[in-house]
Hints:
Blueprint: H1 15-42, H2 44-55, E1 56-61, E2 68-69, E3 75-87, H3 95-106, H4 110-120, E4 129-135, H5 137-146, E5 153-162, H6 170-173, E6 176-178, H7 181-185, E7 197-199, H8 202-206, H9 208-212, E8 216-222, E9 228-235, E10 242-245, H10 249-258, E11 264-269, E12 276-282, H11 296-304, H12 313-316, H13 326-335, E13 345-347, E14 350-353, E15 356-359, E16 367-369, H14 371-376, H15 380-390, H16 392-401, H17 423-430, H18 436-442, H19 453-465, E17 468-470, E18 475-479, E19 485-488, E20 493-496, H20 501-516, E21 533-539, E22 561-568, E23 575-581, H21 587-603
Parallel strand pairs: 2-10
Antiparallel strand pairs: 1-8, 2-3, 3-4, 3-5, 6-7, 8-9, 10-18, 11-12, 11-23, 13-16, 14-15, 17-20, 18-19, 21-22, 22-23
Helix pairs in contact: 1-2, 3-4, 3-5, 10-21, 13-15, 13-16, 15-18
Amino acid sequence: MVQFRSDLVPQNYYGPRILAFSVVVWIVMLGLFIRLWSLQLIMGESFDDMAVENRIRLLRLPPPRGSILDSCGKALAENRASFTFSIVPGAIKAPQKIIEAYADPLGFSPEKMRSVIEKSMLAPKFMSFPIRKNVSLEEVSLMKARACQVKGVSLEARPYRSYPFGSLLCHVLGVTGEISASELEKVGRVGYRPGDYVGKTGIEREYETYLRGEEGWEQIEIDAKGRHLASLTRKPAKAGANIVLTVDASFQRFVEDAFTERAGSVIAVDPDTGRVLAMVSKPGFDPNLFTPTISERNWKSLNSDPLHPLENRSIRGLYPPASTFKLVTALAGLSEGVTTPDKNIFCSGEMGLGGQVYRCWKQHGHGRVNLHRAIVESCDVYFYELGLKLGADRMAKYASLFGLGKPTGLELSQELPGLIPTNFWKERNYGTFIKDGENVTIGIGQGYTLTTPIQLAVMTSALANGGNIMRPYLVEEIKSSDGSVIFQQTPVIRWKMNPDQKIWSIIRKAMRGVVEDRVGTGRKCRIPGLSVYAKTGTSQVVSAREKSMSEEDVPYHERTHAMFVAFVDDQPRKIAIVVVIEHGGGGGKTAAPLARKIICRYYGIPDPGDPKN
C-alpha cells in the first residue's frame, strides 16, 4: 500500500489557494447580495406593477351603435345579434373531432379546417381565434348540438349592422365598415382601435360621433396561462344616439317602387322648410351586403356595374338642367330689362348664328311666341335669343341666386357643386371668353351648365316659397339612448332672393300653364283639384343625332335625359319635386307622369292617370 507523506508537501502549499477561493466566494456572495438588494428595494415596485399587469386584464366593451329611424320611428338601420364561431387553441384536446363536427356546417373542407386550426395555434392559447363571422341561427343550432362532443370551440354573440328595409334609402343611410389605417391616423379618431367598425358613407358616416356611443371597460383577473378567473370592476358601455330622419319609409318606398326606370333620381322636399320628404337614387344596392364585411365577389359586382349603383345621383349626379333652366333665363331677362312679357319673337324651328344652325325641339317651329308661351311650350328659339342678349355672366348671376353651381348644405358631405359657366371661369380654364354660340346653348340649360337634382330641388322650392333659398336637411332630431332630445332641427334660410313680385307672378303663371294649358309640355302632370306648377326639360346627351330616329332606335347611352320640376303650394302641406330619368327621353313624356303619381300619393288622392281610376 502506498501512503501519502505529509512531510513531503511544502508548508505554505494550501494557504494561497484557500485565500483565493475565499475571495471568489465572498465576491460572488457580495454580487448576489447587491442584486437582491437592487431587485427588492430599487426595482421592487416596478416588478410588483408587472405582476399586477400579468394578473389583471382590461377588456374593452364596445358600445351598441345607435339606430337610424324614419320620421314615424321605424328602424332603418339597427343592431342585430350575430354569432362568431371561434377556436380557443389552448383548450383543444382532439383537433380531428373539431374537423369532423364543424367543417361541414361551416362550409369548410376537412383540409381547410385543419389548416385553420393549425393557424390558430400561433395565437395566444386561451384567446378566441375567430374562424367565421355572421353565423346564421340555423347554423348556430346545429353547432350547439355538437358542442358537447368537443372542446376548444366557442360561439360568441356580437352585434352587426342590419338594414331591415334592404335597399330602401341606401344612399342616404350609407354603410359601415372596418376602420382603415388612414382613418385611424385622422384627428378625432381617439378611442378607435384596429378592427372597429365606423360609418363609411351617408348618415352612418356624417353622424358617426353620435351613433358610436361611449366605450366601456371591464377589469378581469387571469392566471398565468391567460384563463379568465374573475371579474373585478366594470364600466358599462353607453349606447350611441338614435338619428331620426325627415323621411317617411312608406312614402319613400312608394317613390322607389314608382321609379321603374334604369337610372336617375327623385327628390321631394317641403319648400317652406327644406325638409326632405323622399330622396331616391337609382340604381341602388343592399347595404346588408356590407355587414359585417362585403365579399370580394359582391364588391367587384357593384364596382364593375356600368350604371354605378354605389353613386348617389341625388347629390353627385351632374346633368345639364335643360329647359328647366329657362325659368332662370326668364327671370334674368325680365329683371335685367332685356325682354318684356309682351315681346314676341318668331320661331321657325331654328335660329342661325355665325354659320351654325340652332334648332328648336319642335321641328316646324312655334310661330310667334311671347314669354308665357315660350315657357308653356318650351320654345328653344325664344330662349336662344334671350340667352344671346343676356350673356353668360348675367345668366350666372341669377342662377347663383337660385343656389345653382354650389353645394346646398345638405348633411351628406360628398355633394358635388355642379357648374354655372361665366367668362371668368372660361378664361381661367380655356384661356378664352364664352362665345355667342355658347351663350345660346346656356340660355336653354345646355352647354357647360351642370346641376345636381338636389340643387334643382332648392331652385324649385324657392319658386314655391317666394324666393327663400332653404338649406335642405335629412335629420329631424337626435335622441340619446334614454330618449332625451340632444338635437332638434330648425329650418335655415340661407339667403333671400327678394324678387320683383310682378316678375315672380309672371313666371309662376307660366309654370301653371305648363300643366294646365292644352299645349303645355307638362300636361301629363295635371291633377284635378290641385294647382301644380311645373317645367319640363329634355337634356341632350350627344351633340346631334338624326331627327328622324325614334327614341327607341337610339342607343340607350345616347338618349336624352328626362327632367321635370314641379311644386304645389296651395295646400296645407306643400311639396316641391324633381324627377331626373337618365336616358328617359322627353321630360313631359316620362318624368311628368311619375311626378303626378308621387304628388297624388303625397296628398292621398286618386291618380287620374291610373286606369283603375
